[in-house]
Fold each of these.
Amino acid sequence: MRMRGALLCGLAGTAAVLAAAVLRRRLTAVEVSGDSMLPDLRPGDWLLVRTGARAAPGDVVVARHPERPELLVVKRAHHRSGDGWWLESDNQKAAGRRDSWDFGPVPDTLVTGRVLARYWPLPVKSVL
């Protein structure tokens, strides 16, 4: 019973921290569309994004499209140059895929946040 109580307290604490971050507008949700991030991210996946978080090579980030700033893109941060972040799709063969191979490095000011987790749909576990 003690273990269960500790687990519930831990979950409640985590929920409180997340709620505070959302209220401070540091966390936001983004829906994936398109196949450019397959196999890890699929159309319809919902992501928890920490806005303003620094990116590091290998992170999945959300950025404003340099040619269409009203459009958000989800890409992998490959490396940073003097001109900004080189962002790439995981699936280079996806139809309609657009990334730094097409528009070049993305200025730091257009990288809006780092993806923390995919929260929807819930993972499905197979039972044998």
Amino acid sequence: MQLTPPSAARSASTVAAAGEPRAGLSRRTDIAVRTLQIVLALFLAIPSAGPKIIGHSVAAESFDEIGFGDWFMYLTGGLELAGAVALVVPILSGASAIALVGLMIGAFITQVTVFDGQNALTPVILLVLFAVVAWVRRQKTVELVALVRWRV
């Protein structure tokens, strides 16, 4: 049984000091990706999740056309809001980006099959941006998995 968390057991060569980008990630890249995470989180929380969570008529009409009704609209809005919050929490950022890639795959499929591809490019662009965040923050995902395994 391991008595210390994985983060404490790692050598200093693999993990940068707290608050600094990990080894191999330039400061400029780290700042650019953090900025991207904030912009994506704001987009997800306000114009995307907001209308779904408050049940705005435009969002309700779209989800009625999908055929799943209000419960799916609220679920989707809740997932987007949770993803937006997790995207700006450092330890959750990589895992959140991966989950949001999955959400965008579903949004793309829905746009193509239900709405004849009218706005199919939007989820594709977001998917690519979330994939970039997931790739750059992959070490955070590894740390999260190690932390969860250590506690179990």
Amino acid sequence: MAQRKGCLIGCGVALVLGAGLIVALFFGVGKFLDMADKSMVDPAVYGAVKTGDAESEVRDRLPSGESFVKCALKEGGPAEPEGSTCAWYISSGEPKNGEETVLRFCFKDGRLAEKTQYPMK
């Protein structure tokens, strides 16, 4: 009888841990997809904004929030314009030659100073 009770307790603990793992995995995947979404910009948005546009207007068209994905996008691109602050995103368009495209928007004095696209390294 004691063995049976111990087995039931062990199975119950395993079931609770398994359910907790599934919930954590589901939450983690959802969080990852949300982060990825915050790092993507439609190519139409990139094409629509022009150098000289007000920074506030451009940023209103870009996803808000930070994403860990953006940190890797800074590598491999051209030098940032001096005195500017830049934001990096991944193009939501089709990859070119199997490579994702990085879209960089640089702002200075309240205006879009430069927009650049380059392949992700």
Amino acid sequence: MTEPDVAGLQRRLAEFAASREWQPYHTPKNLAAALSVEAAELLEIFQWSTPDEADRVMDDPERAHRVEDEVADVLAYLLQFCGVLGVDPLAALAAKIDRNELRFPVGRPPGRSKDATENGHDHSSE
């Protein structure tokens, strides 16, 4: 059995949706909303957990299964969103990492970008 790849998973998701005639509902707005909902469901697993409990979430088989299911849902909607808009998710991530390596050089305090320290503003959330 071969390892899944992004393009293959996107193809499977598109075929799954097409066979059920779901494409009219898979608009960028709807997929972004669904992605947000699934990310919130992932966060819900950790709601009210202490940092130590959160670190051990995968030790409980039931919670581990929930985490894996929500990760799958988040990734599925993200891949469908990228497919609809023609975004290469791996290329987008690689480009973002490149930009972040320039913005946040090694040795700079966390949360402080190069731009922020030069201009007196903190843009770390951008």
